[in-house]
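It is worth pausing here to work through a concrete case rather than discussing structure prediction in the abstract. The textbook approach is simple: state the sequence, then state the predicted structure, then interpret. We follow exactly that order.
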Amino acid sequence: MTTSPPAAAAAVLLAGPTCTGKSALALALAERFPVEIVSVDSAQVYRGMDIGTSKPSAVIRAAVPHHLIDVCDPAETYSAGRFRRDALALIGAIRARGRVPLLVGGTLLYFRTLTRGIAPLPEADAGLRAALDRRARSVGWPALHAELAGRDPVAAARIRPADGQRIQRALEVLELTGERLSDLQRRATPAPLDFAAFALVPGDREALYGRIDRRFLAMMEAGLLDEVCALRARPDLHADLPSLRSVGYRQLWAHLEGTCSLAESVAAAQRATRNLAKRQLTWLRSDAQWQPIREPEAAELGPILGVMSRAAGA
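Step two, the predicted structure:
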């Protein structure tokens, strides 16, 4: 996998922490180049989760083709492996139409899975996951994280003690295969494509945090609590689903369960989003495949504009 190819890239990747303006930059690029946007967002794939995921409006999606938005129900699980299959198929189809695939988002695990491959992992086991969920409700995810650290310390070191979804998957793999997730991941096969990878990074971290806080308040004014209420009214949805572990939804769901006040849930969601941005930035800075772009400044856009020009002319 090549991240800064001398010739035209098969696809252009645009990542970055939440609230850095990735979508605005992507739309600006779409005004200049024949672009189709592929969303790299683990929450935008779910129908009925619109406000809290900052989905592009119907008007924007009518003007610029967008993919991997509203592709599954919140009761389903959308995995990194499914994303890779979908994204590779879309890249081929978009290129066949003579257009440029522009993959945009902040789910960095999806980007890594796309470019570096995915391990030969087993399919999810609903019964085992339900059992792990029951254990987590009894003892807490940090306790299961401690168990994972004893069995697969490499995987545990990459996972936060409160990240139930990833802890669950690592333990599930151990139970189903008898092998450690970290060992299986070393067997991944990179995609046979050239990518040009750019990371939109904040020029001022405190300013970014301020935008995050204000955006969440704007989401609340736009009806996010009603959106979560509608999801909670469905008998087939519950707080342990991957869709409803998304930042913002998780905290407001807790409020609706009566475990905290609305003000506390809003503050918790803002804090969780700031922490997400910190983790995204740390990940991007530690991965050499990403060429940084300071939050949209004309002087910083030269490399991505050059790559887009070559891709569009290929």
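Step three, interpretation. The chain is about 50% helix and 10% strand. The CA atoms of residues 80 and 110 lie 5 Å apart.
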